[in-house]
Amino acid sequence: MASKSFDQLDGEIWYNGEFVDWRDAKVHVLTHGLHYASSVFEGERAYGGEIFKLRQHTDRLIKSAEYLGFEIPYTADEIDEACIATLKRQGLTDAYIRPIAWRGSEMMGISAQSNKINLAIAVWAWPSYFDPEERLKGLRLGMAEYCRPDPRTIPSFAKAAGLYMICTLSKHKAESEGYTDALMLDWRGRVAEATGANVFFIKDGEIITPDPDCFLNGITRQTIIDLAKKRGIKVTERAILPEEMEGFEGCFLTGTAAEVTPVSEIGPYKFVVGDIIKTLMEDYTKEVTPS
Length: 291
Known about the structure:
alpha+beta, D-amino Acid Aminotransferase, Chain A, domain 1, seven-stranded antiparallel β-sheet, nine-stranded mixed β-sheet, 7 helices, D-amino Acid Aminotransferase, Chain A, domain 2
């Protein structure tokens, strides 16, 4: 994690087709994306100079914009090329990549039909989303107060800025209570995800994970499911009620930032970091490491 403010890092940011000094990559205070959350973004990681599943992230960025009713003025090929160029420009091989697209400041109000669509890409070193020592022994999660909303009320399959407001609130509350993160239920009271990662459970050698019908079907989530199946491990995607956690033996989170992170506790429920989790952590490291 950076030791100074993110607006004061060194290097350059790709901004609407050109590189600008990191400190000069700014938007106006009346930007629509700031006031009305009309922005979408991606979180990507580079390992050994290669961005893992870059095209899948780019496709999701474009699709997220479509969910919010705007079109990013660059093709998938152009966005991919810009991500790769920014990584090289920063001189990094292992890094975090953040493309973000948003409506500008041409109109201020709910309606923003004429606003310019902007795209920026920033790259920085971000070794681990969680404390490395805590990650190895398993995170402690609290239970979030807020729930993932009904897809009829919000475009829940977009990786959109507005959807993360309740995640920040939930994570802050969890941290104030001594936890690292929080588990969120959905509007029906079913287990959904953590504030920025998908969740998996283990019981009797089987992996069980919530059906992503109101939250992101993460790219890392899909990768882990594929890796588990290659190992011959049964993976079941289904509705999970909170009280079922009492009978689960293991738990872990997945995400581009989180990678594969064990969980030792969710509220009153305890878990162990068993062999399946350790194996998947190793398999994921091999999967993202360029040959």
